[in-house]
Amino acid sequence: MVAVCERIAVIGAGSWGSVLANTLVLNGLKVRIWSRRQEQVDELNNLHTNRHYLADFEYDSRLQATTELKKVIEGATVILLVVPTKAIRMVSRQIAALLAPNDKKTVIAHASKGLELGTHKRISEIIAEEIPEDRRNGIVALSGPSHAEEVACHDLTLVTAASENQEAAKHIQKIFMNEYFRVYTNSDIIGVELGAAFKNIIALGAGALHGLGYGDDAKAALITRGLAEIARLGVALGAEPLTFIGLTGVGDLIVTCTSVHSRNWRAGDQLGRGEDLKKVVANMGMVIEGINTTKAAYELAQQEKIEMPITEAIYDVIYKGRKIKDAILELMKREGRSEEETKN
Ligand SMILES: NC(=O)C1=CN([C@@H]2O[C@H](COP(=O)(O)OP(=O)(O)OC[C@H]3O[C@@H](n4cnc5c(N)ncnc54)[C@H](OP(=O)(O)O)[C@@H]3O)[C@@H](O)[C@H]2O)C=CC1
Ligand SMILES: O=C(CO)COP(=O)(O)O
């Protein structure tokens, strides 16, 4: 059973952070959520809504929001980061400055999905660099096929809490588990974080296929061949191959490539319909992680000498202005291969 007195800090009040925070409140925990904007804090505290991110959802009135980071993390046994990947380093640095040295009480968890531009680091690696080991009790990635819109209305969702520290992973499992939100543990945080990041690239492609009017055969092929290249790069980077057939691999790939809730899928769909990338990003008003992750994965694949034809095609479309139809045609015209080839 979760200790009722336990206090949880959620950092980031976008669609996912706010719904995860609400889930924990409903599970009986004391939760404070941090937002950088006072008007959003006022809306959450007074109206119990967060209209920009989830238009028709009412949050539990026990959820407390504030812009004061110190107040949010004070006394927290878990600090859960749910900001876009590009903000993880800065936020972690600010948190580290507020945690006491030699106080290893706090589990640091995150539910974000991406790789850092430039360094290509996974989120737990960034956190480990910014929050000294003596100020934390493990780093956990909470990941899997999960859309805020569905968890908000208690649809059934299964995710994974991954960490090198199994006690910390079990703690995250314990505080989140309920009758609609089921959590597994996993020790392969490399595979879990890489699967979570890379699936967004393939989701951009799945959306683009839809926008162009292609059917289910094309979608299934993209998901399958996408998984093959995700796993190839992931294993080269130290992941366990089996992780890619779990919730955070194929599970998240399926949901993100097929759900209208996915921002990455929706962005791809609009690109497929001929919209301009800058306009798509501006109109989304929420993070589209796959755009930066495509660049990071493309560079990592070059560095590791791993062939990733789909990622390369999406990179060309996003970063070199290539026409999507031309990129698809080139993929289709590649030399015939054996499906049994595992390396390339
Ligand atoms: N939405 C979902 O269903 C899921 C999302 N995720 C992952 O969770 C992470 C967050 O996604 P999500 O909540 O959807 O994103 P949103 O775009 O909905 O919200 C992002 C939140 O982060 C804040 N933020 C943005 N930039 C910064 C910054 N530089 N410094 C501090 N705070 C910042 C935003 O604040 P402001 O409003 O002030 O801009 C907002 O509160 C992503 O990595 C995503 O892939 C994972 C699973 C499901
Ligand atoms: O990670 C997600 C689903 O598991 C959310 O995907 P999007 O960021 O594409 O909305």
From TrEMBL:
InterPro entries: 6-PGluconate_DH-like_C_sf, 6PGD_dom2, G3P_DH_NAD-dep, G3P_DH_NAD-dep_C, G3P_DH_NAD-dep_N, NAD(P)-bd_dom_sf
Amino acids binding NADPH: 15-16, 36-37, 53, 113, 148, 263, 287, 289
Job description of the protein: Catalyzes the reduction of the glycolytic intermediate dihydroxyacetone phosphate (DHAP) to sn-glycerol 3-phosphate (G3P), the key precursor for phospholipid synthesis.
Protein name, UniProt field: Glycerol-3-phosphate dehydrogenase [NAD(P)+]
EC number annotated for this UniProt entry: 1.1.1.94
Family: Belongs to the NAD-dependent glycerol-3-phosphate dehydrogenase family.
GO molecular function: glycerol-3-phosphate dehydrogenase (NAD+) activity; glycerol-3-phosphate dehydrogenase (NADP+) activity; NAD binding
GO biological process terms, semicolon-separated: carbohydrate metabolic process; glycerol-3-phosphate biosynthetic process; glycerol-3-phosphate catabolic process; glycerophospholipid metabolic process; phospholipid biosynthetic process
UniProt: sn-glycerol 3-phosphate binding residues: 113, 144, 146, 199, 252, 262-264
Pfam family of the protein (one): NAD_Gly3P_dh_N
Domain (Glycerol-3-phosphate dehydrogenase NAD-dependent N-terminal): residue spans on this chain: 8-169
Catalytic function, reaction form: sn-glycerol 3-phosphate + NAD(+) = dihydroxyacetone phosphate + NADH + H(+); sn-glycerol 3-phosphate + NADP(+) = dihydroxyacetone phosphate + NADPH + H(+)
UniProt-listed Gene3D superfamilies: N-(1-d-carboxylethyl)-l-norvaline Dehydrogenase, domain 2, NAD(P)-binding Rossmann-like Domain
Residues holding NAD(+): 12-17, 148, 263
Binding site for substrate: 113, 263-264
Pathway(s) this gene product operates in, as recorded in its UniProt entry: Membrane lipid metabolism; glycerophospholipid metabolism
Keyword terms: Cytoplasm, Lipid biosynthesis, Lipid metabolism, NAD, NADP, Nucleotide-binding, Oxidoreductase, Phospholipid biosynthesis, Phospholipid metabolism
Phylogenetic lineage: Bacteria, Bacillati, Bacillota, Bacilli, Lactobacillales
GO CC terms: cytosol
Stretches assigned to the Glycerol-3-phosphate dehydrogenase NAD-dependent C-terminal domain: 188-328
Origin: domain of life: Bacteria
UniProt-annotated location(s): Cytoplasm
Active-site residues from the entry: 199
Enzyme class: oxidoreductase
